[in-house]
Design a protein that fits this description.
Number of strands: 4
Strand order of the largest sheet: 2-1-3-4
CATH class of the largest domain: Mainly Alpha
Order of helices and strands: EHEHEEHHHHHHHH
Largest sheet: 4 strands, mixed
Number of domains: 2
Distance between the termini: 27 Å
Helix content: 40-55%
CATH architecture of the largest domain: Up-down Bundle
Number of helices: 10
Radius of gyration: 18 Å
């Protein structure tokens, strides 16, 4: 078997919107791949050993290791340009990439902060969410350790009083920006689905969670997260995310076998 025929191997967090970007791109391009779900916090040794840094997603593909959702999407587009995610016209492509960067760098950190803030003070709910799909023993271990690692989570997610308040103030502005970019055909750039739509919709899943999202959050949701979602449910941007998911999320290209079970490392 050559490097070209070995399926890509994705290390990911089930709940993360950054990781959803890469899952969606692989599925959209109908690229069969293997997924390994890791647990937030427990993932660091594996991620650092493979990629020299601590974050997921990490994609092993054709003998290389790629980290970062925007870098991975760019390589997927280069290696498998059909169906395209990048617009053909240069101006449209630049605008699509600028929107991807905005949602990655401005919106995603705010929504991640708000998402984790709904869980951070409840070790049981945090463990249920972070270890969903893993054995009960893993969940109990994570819950027992969480009070020790919670300060690091607060720092990494930016869950501080001023930072959290700023994220709440900016959330309506993020929706306004999204809504202002929606064109007459329902897309952010041009008349077809692109990386801009994928990135914006995937990032917004931190609080919207469409039915087509690959890994539903375990019930019950924290009250704060339910209220946050309800506070934007009447917005055009909220409806746009649901529509983009319904029209373009498609079916999974994951190769499923007993060997692809989640890992706790």
């Amino acid at each position: 078997m050559t490097l070209e025929t070995v399926p890509p191997r994705l290390l990911h967090f089930r709940v993360s919107h950054y990781n959803e970007k890469v899952r969606w791109a692989l599925d959209y391009k109908r690229w069969p791949h293997v997924r390994r779900a890791l647990i937030p916090g427990f993932h660091i040794p594996r991620a650092r050993w493979l990629s020299g840094q601590n974050r997921l997603p990490v994609l092993e593909i054709q003998g290389r290791v790629l980290a970062g959702s925007n870098h991975i999407l760019a390589e997927l587009e280069r290696l498998r340009p059909d169906p395209p995610l990048y617009p053909e016209e240069r101006a449209d492509r630049e605008r699509a990439l600028a929107l991807e960067a905005y949602f990655d760098e401005q919106v995603a950190p705010d929504l991640r902060c708000l998402f984790w803030a709904a869980y951070i003070d409840d070790p049981a709910a945090s463990a249920r969410m972070a270890t969903d799909g893993f054995p009960i023993g893993v969940r109990r271990t994570w819950q027992a350790l969480f009070p020790l690692i919670r300060p690091a989570f607060r720092r990494n997610m930016g869950i501080e009083r001023e930072r959290l308040a700023a994220a709440r103030r900016r959330m309506p502005l993020h929706f306004e920006r999204l809504e202002s970019e929606i064109g007459p055909d329902g897309y952010l750039v041009g008349s077809r689905f692109s990386v801009a739509d994928l990135a914006a919709a995937a990032v917004m899943t931190a609080i919207i969670r469409p039915a087509q999202f690959s890994y539903p959050l375990p019930e019950p949701w924290p009250r704060e997260l339910v209220e946050l979602r309800e506070s934007v449910a009447d917005r055009a941007g909220f409806r746009w995310v649901l529509d983009i998911y319904a029209r373009h999320r498609g079916v999974s290209s994951e190769i499923v076998s007993s060997a692809t079970r989640p890992e706790a490392e």
